[in-house]
Amino acid sequence: FLPQVDSANAGRVLASDAAVFLKKSGLTDLVLGKIWDLADTDGKGILNKQEFFVALRLVACAQNGLDVSLNSLNLPVPPPRFTDTSSPLLLSGAASSDLPWAVKLEDKVKYDAIFDSLNPVNGLLSGDKVKPVLLNSKLPVDILGRVWELSDIDRDGMLDRDEFAVAMFLVYCALEKEPVPMSLPAALVPPSKRKPLSVPGAMPLIPSSTSTKESHQSLPPVGILAAKTPLTQ
After folding, report:
1. Contact 189, 203 (CB under 8 A)
2. What are the tens digits of pLDDT across the range 137-182?
3. Overall fold of domain 105-192
4. What is the CATH number of domain 12-72?
5. Is 5 left (phi over 0), alpha (psi -120 to 50) or beta?
């Protein structure tokens, strides 16, 4: 990343250059401001190589739902993601503020194969069909419950192909000892589920009316794992 913002190869990054580059992370200006303040330790408006790496690390933390703080620097997170016009994962005709999907193409192919092997009906898998796959990971039930809650983006008690890929992505992250976020990071929301008019950097929230939200708040947090029957509306 450094050569992209340090064109003069001076080993330092100016605030103006860094701002343009960091905006490609899709994070809000508020979060990016906090990241800059933590990285620019002497407040000179210039980052040296080490400080720039701290900024990148904090971007990765924010993209994965972790706190933007120096305490998060030692936590295991995937590398930060920045929109790149040459990236095949960018939505066609998408605004530059749209993030590429965190699920890599080669992984998606594997997840799709598992999805198809579970005999989806009308392109959907019920909770009962997904449950054995999740339990097979041997992860704690509360973690798996959160994986289900995060991946069932439209809250219909079923997972489509993209939602299943999100579930698998989160399971593999958890198996690598990475924390499962409390809310779905914007980069993990499948392109098919993103609102076209979302605020740049804002997490696309689940599109549902107040009444459906209320009815689902009464469900057990563990979701499908606690229920013997699949969740249906």
Report:
1. yes
2. 999 999 999 999 999 999 999 999 999 999 999 999 999 888 888 8
3. Recoverin; domain 1 (1.10.238)
4. 1.10.238.10
5. alpha
| 197-224: pLDDT as tens digits | 444 444 444 444 444 444 444 344 444 4
Q: Where are the domains of the chain?
A: 12-72, 105-192
Write the single-letter amino acid at 25: S
Which residues touch 6 (CB under 8 Å, ≥6 apart)?
12, 13, 17, 52
Hey, do 12-72 and 105-192 end up sharing a CATH topology, with the first three levels equal?
A: yes
Write down the pTM of the prediction: 0.47
Assess whether pLDDT exceeds 50 at residue 92: no
Terminus-to-terminus CA distance in the chain, angstroms? 46
Torsion-angle region of 231 (φ positive above 0: left; ψ -120 to 50: alpha; else: beta)? beta
